[in-house]
Design goal:
Blueprint: H1 22-34, H2 66-76, H3 79-87, E1 108-118, E2 137-147, E3 150-153
Antiparallel strand pairs: 1-2, 2-3
């Protein structure tokens, strides 16, 4: 992603909070690496095509985020930090962390941290197909999850 997308009128880039400059992104990465920032989340906010394929000023804010979040963050950080920043707030929000032991209901994400791939519309499971990361090279791909005794695959 470059600073020139900030000046485009592509409604895929109309987000709230808005995309930041390269300088801002470097400061965010520094904050992650220094431990100043505790977590990374995706504001998965898909918008229907009727509210995205219109004049920029009238388009709604929002983007698909779940399908690309892991690969985008893993592009920048190592796998340990990627997992830490995507899951590290479970304790703060009192979300139960299940160990992978016999008899426990495990919550597992199935992924390949090294897979290189280009994010495109066929990777979006939502009916909405808008994303600020369409066409971006990502590192690490999630194949599915096992949660609540169910397996869901992409």
């Amino acid at each position: 992603m470059t600073d020139d997308v900030l000046n485009s009128f592509d409604s895929n880039y109309k987000l709230q909070p808005p995309l930041r400059t390269i300088k801002d992104i470097k400061a965010l990465i520094k904050g992650l690496n220094e431990g100043t920032i505790d977590a990374v989340t995706s504001d998965h906010n898909p918008i229907d095509i009727e509210n995205k394929k219109i004049e920029f000023d009238h388009a709604l804010y929002g983007s698909v985020g779940l399908e690309s979040c892991f690969g985008a963050l893993n592009n920048t950080l190592d796998i340990e930090k990627t997992i830490k920043y995507l899951t590290g707030l479970k304790e703060d929000f009192k979300i139960q962390i299940n160990s992978i032991d016999e008899g426990n209901n495990a919550d597992i994400t199935l992924f390949n941290p090294e897979e290189q791939w280009v994010f495109n519309q066929k990777n979006i499971l939502s009916k909405s197909k808008n994303s600020a990361l369409l066409g971006c090279q990502l590192k690490g791909k999630v194949y599915g999850v096992i949660a609540n005794k169910k397996m869901i695959l992409n």
